[in-house]
Design brief:
heterodimer; A: about 240 residues; 3-stranded antiparallel beta sheet; 6 helices; B: about 475 residues; 4-stranded mixed beta sheet; 16 helices; about 20% strand
């Protein structure tokens, strides 16, 4: 039997098992911490930095999805500072690539858009980078528009952990970082892709989409498969 | 001394422009030009986008006529997919397109032009506006607002929202029509018909005042172009291109709209962002033709609906089989609107209009596609080229206002010549120059996409019109 830790999030007494993350316990207790890379059913990676929280006694912020709980810790998940911080992180995601909600396939079905709205991000102070970014529409069923990719790497993880194909990975560094299929070949030429579509379903924005979907018609309704797939994987010891 | 009169900005039109009128040292008009000073560039910014996005991207060209661009663009993508939308999908597209025509025609006639017609071109601008109309002739203003609302509601109910609706998609429509929405639209038909007929009755009695004006309001010989159906009646969605000359003789008939490039050329002038299209057989700049409501009533045999046909007969009795004066755009626009309301009702009462089969799907089957439809202001053409993955490589748009560009310039010159006498500029000249532009209801935000060097030309003219010096870049 695992050890139970009691601690506090935003002044609320909560409890969780050893090995759980702050994010998991917060979710169980109905405390909403914004996140774009975290998704129930796949392992966390700490890529988006939206779930950063303050921990009493620690000089730096910690990612709630990557921080294991400890006995008696005092977590602040919501404060003016954190709100400002999260707003800036979201703003940086927008200005780094080219996001145009009005003509995006994921308009009104987009987690980035929802996050911006929840955080009250009404305008950009940072200059837009407006990079020239490619679209890969070579796959028969799906396409990726790197303009809308926020590098949450959900596609990479779901492809590896659930589908077991590991078609997706990342290449380059810094601003040049891109998700890639196989060793950087066009998606349509990938020999590992099973065309299962899980990457499209987990993508939080309109970066990965089904071809032929018109603007604002890119809802992702088949995501609940994930937790079940994870349970099956764990039961079989995969 | 020679001088230039500049009207900047031109008001009560859609977009930004200015007019320059060049006078010689005797005060006679030498030249007049309609400069479109804004630039949009959609032909360039859509390059690199997946073709399925095109209708929604192109809709963003205009907040007044997004549906027109959606229709022409969706048809161009249909062509690239090589699919035929299901018949009900086509009918729903027709209805939403006609809803667009009703609301935009109403905006042009009631909101933008009726103040000139009600108060006269010389009236104080403080009253010569839609609010003045609402005080002087409340029924007229109410009818205009009501018609526009009804048209906008059709767009919202069929397409999802009033401006930039998302329901018009490649292959057809995103969602089928429900009986409830059909009945809601039908319930508004009687009032819509009554409103247009009241406006037509008012216009016809009022028109006598303007016979003199009409003679010089863009009154010239030109060709006219429009889409017509199998019987030669007006077709706002599909059919064939027909072009007639000023005497009504066919210059071309039953032309597949996809072949428009064989017939129409585009010219670029350094002083405007708006391209001028011309009838290739007659060359540039002689191949001048007009599109829009006036062209539709001139080109078609009939409108194809009973009330509109009755009005069309009266129109032809009054102004001739082929109306030459652009002043009659107003009258034609009302008949066009009446027809649209009747046609919406006819389509909604069709037996299969509630069919659930409204969209065809396919992959990229062609690398090039053309979509042509009738927008409120005239024939609208979208032409795209894509790679094998459906990424847009190239786009060309010919917008109704571009077809009318040369006609607008000629009209401005004609009105300026009539109202500038010697040293004095006749009262109301500036108002009339603006008003003649309004006849065409130009949408400049829609029509300025050519990309190149910024248009700038400076000419030093001698009184005899000789160019003494010229700078351009």
């Amino acid at each position: 039997m695992s050890t139970v830790f009691t601690f506090r999030i935003d002044g609320k007494d909560v409890a969780g098992s050893e090995g759980q993350t702050v994010m998991e316990v917060a979710e169980e207790n109905g405390i909403d911490i914004p996140a774009l890379c975290h998704l129930e059913g796949i392992h966390d990676r700490g890529a988006c930095r939206l779930c950063m929280v303050e921990i009493a006694g620690s000089p730096k912020l910690a990612a709630a999805c990557m921080t294991k709980i400890t006995e008696g810790m005092d977590v602040t998940a919501h404060s003016e500072l954190l709100l400002e911080y999260r707003r800036t992180v979201t703003e940086m995601m927008f200005v780094e690539r080219n996001h145009v909600c009005a003509v995006c396939v994921a308009n009104n079905h987009c987690e980035l858009q929802d996050t911006a709205e929840e955080l009250g991000l009404t305008h950009f102070d940072l200059p837009r980078i407006s990079p020239k970014v490619d679209i890969d529409a070579s796959h028969r069923l799906f396409a990726i528009d790197h303009n809308r990719c926020i590098l949450c790497l959900r596609c990479v993880r779901v492809c590896d952990e659930i589908e077991g194909a590991h078609t997706w990975d990342i290449m380059h560094r810094g601003l040049e970082t891109r998700v890639q299929t196989d060793m950087g070949i066009p998606w349509g030429e990938s020999t590992t892709c099973t065309s299962c579509g899980k990457c499209v379903q987990v993508c939080p924005t309109g970066a990965l989409f089904e071809k032929g979907r018109a603007v604002a018609r890119g809802s992702k309704t088949r995501r609940p498969f994930l937790p079940w797939m994870k349970v099956v994987a764990e039961e079989r010891g995969l | 001394m020679s001088r230039t009169i500049v009207i900047d900005p031109v008001t009560r039109i859609e977009g930004h422009s200015k007019i320059t009128i060049q006078l010689d040292d005797r005060g006679e008009v030498v030249d007049a030009r309609f400069h479109v000073t804004q630039f949009r560039g959609f032909e360039r910014i859509t390059q690199g986008r997946p073709v399925h996005e095109m209708p929604a991207l192109m809709a963003r060209i205009c907040g007044i006529c997004p549906v027109s661009h959606l229709i022409a663009s969706a048809k161009a993508v249909d062509d690239i997919l090589a699919v035929e939308p299901p018949p009900t999908g086509v009918d729903l597209r027709r209805i939403i397109n006609l809803g667009q025509i009703v609301q935009s025609n109403s905006l042009s006639f009631f909101h933008l032009s009726s103040p000139d017609l009600l108060f006269g071109f010389d009236a104080d601008p403080a009253v010569r506006n839609i609010l003045g109309v609402a005080r002087q002739n409340p029924q007229l203003a109410k009818d205009g607002i009501g018609l526009r609302k009804w048209g906008q509601q059709i767009i919202e109910w069929l397409g999802g929202k009033r401006i930039h609706p998302e329901g018009i998609v490649p292959g057809g429509m995103a969602t089928p029509l429900t009986a409830e929405v059909r009945d809601r639209i039908l319930a508004g038909v009687p009032e819509a018909i009554a409103a247009v007929e009241r406006a037509i009755a008012w216009y016809k009695t009022d028109m006598l005042r303007w016979e003199d004006e009409a003679a010089t309001f863009g009154n010239f010989r030109s060709a006219f172009m429009s889409l017509v159906d199998r019987e030669g009646n007006v077709d706002h969605y599909g059919g064939w291109l027909r072009v007639i000359d000023a005497d009504g003789k066919y210059l071309a008939d039953r032309v597949d709209p996809k072949l428009f490039n064989d017939y129409i050329g585009e010219a670029v002038e350094p002083w405007s962002y708006l391209k001028s299209t011309y009838w290739k057989a007659m060359g540039y700049p002689d191949g001048i033709y007009r599109v829009g409501p006036l062209a539709r009533v001139n080109v078609a045999e009939r409108m194809g609906t009973p009330r509109a046909d009755e009005e069309l007969e009266k129109f032809r009795w009054r102004v001739g089989r082929v109306a030459g004066s652009s002043f009659h755009y107003h009258y034609a626009r009302l008949i066009d609107t009446l027809h649209s309301v009747e046609k919406i009702e006819e389509l909604l009462r069709g037996p299969d209009i509630l069919s659930k089969h409204v969209r065809s799907t396919a992959g990229i089957n062609r690398n090039e596609g053309i979509g042509v439809s009738e927008a409120p202001r005239g024939t609208l053409m979208h032409h795209y080229k894509v790679d094998d993955d459906g990424i847009v490589l190239w786009a060309n748009l010919i917008i109704a206002t571009g077809h009318n560009n040369m006609a607008m310039n000629r009209s401005v010159l004609q009105v300026a010549r009539r109202h500038v006498k010697g040293e004095t500029i006749a009262e109301g000249m500036l108002n009339r120059v603006e008003a003649v532009i309004r006849c065409y209801d130009p949408c400049l935000s829609c029509s300025t996409h050519a990309l190149g060097q910024m248009a700038l030309q400076i000419q030093l003219l001698a009184p005899d019109g000789k160019v003494l010096d010229e700078l351009s870049r």
